[in-house]
Amino acid sequence: MKKRILFICLGNICRSPMAETIMQRIVDEQGLTQDYEIDSAGLISYHEGEGADPRIRSHAARRGYRITHLSRPIRTSDFRRFDLIIGMDDANIDTLRRLSPDLGTDAKIHQISEFFVNVQADHVPDPYYGGSQGFEHVIDLLEDACQGLLQWIIDN
Ligand code: 4NP
Q1: Which residue from 12, 17, 115, 140 could staple onto 145, CB 3.0 to 4.6 Å apart?
Q2: What is the pLDDT of residues 57-102, one digit of tens each?
Q3: Mind telling me the catalytic residues?
Q4: Which residue's alpha carbon is nearest to atom 9 within ligand 1?
């Protein structure tokens, strides 16, 4: 059965579309494209319909990633459709828990730091109001977490 993964951040223009793009590349490289559905969404609708922030796009492009996702807010139906709903920081998790319709969907919510392998950190920080170093850091963290996530799925 297909595994459905939804990455969540606040605006859905920096962290979660980056995570979606990295995870898609990893599953494609492993020949697992047909086994996964990967998407992302935001907790605010302010940027709905916009492409990813040009700053993360340019940092991503240097590592060969092209982010095509358009920002959209999370919908209640996402809690049913997706198997794993993965937030970037504790504030994301608090909001997801508030939006989650029931205990069954609560169990799908994870903090991305659960999947770090080589990284010592407890969240992926919001890069929106920071400098270019923050965007590089976000991509470093997400590359590590997405590798860890695939391994976790395979092991569980
Ligand atoms: P993201 O970054 O949650 O990683 O997409 C942000 C994007 C926009 C805003 C905040 C964070 N904002 O406040 O508009």
Answers
A1: 115
A2: 999 999 999 999 999 999 999 999 999 999 999 999 999 999 999 9
A3: 9, 15, 126
A4: 11
**Do 21 and 60 contact (CB within 8 A), yes or no?**
yes
Which amino acid is present at 61? A
Strand spans (E) along 10-137: 36-42, 84-87, 109-111
3-state class (DSSP) for residue 31? coil
pLDDT at 64: 98
| Ligand 1 centroid, distance to 31 Cα (angstroms) | 32
CATH number of the domain enclosing 130:
3.40.50.2300
Which of 13, 43, 70 to mutate to test ligand 1, by most ligand atoms within 8 A of the CB atom? 13
User: What are φ and ψ of residue 145, in 5° steps?
Assistant: -65, -40
List the domain range (segments joined by +) for residue 52.
3-155
Question: In this structure, which residue's CA is closest to atom 10 in ligand 1?
Answer: 11
Domain count across the chain: 1
In this structure, the chain runs to a length of 156
72 lines ligand 1 (CB under 6 A): no
What tens digit of pLDDT does each residue of 99-151 get? Answer: 999 999 999 999 999 999 999 999 999 999 999 999 999 999 999 999 999 99
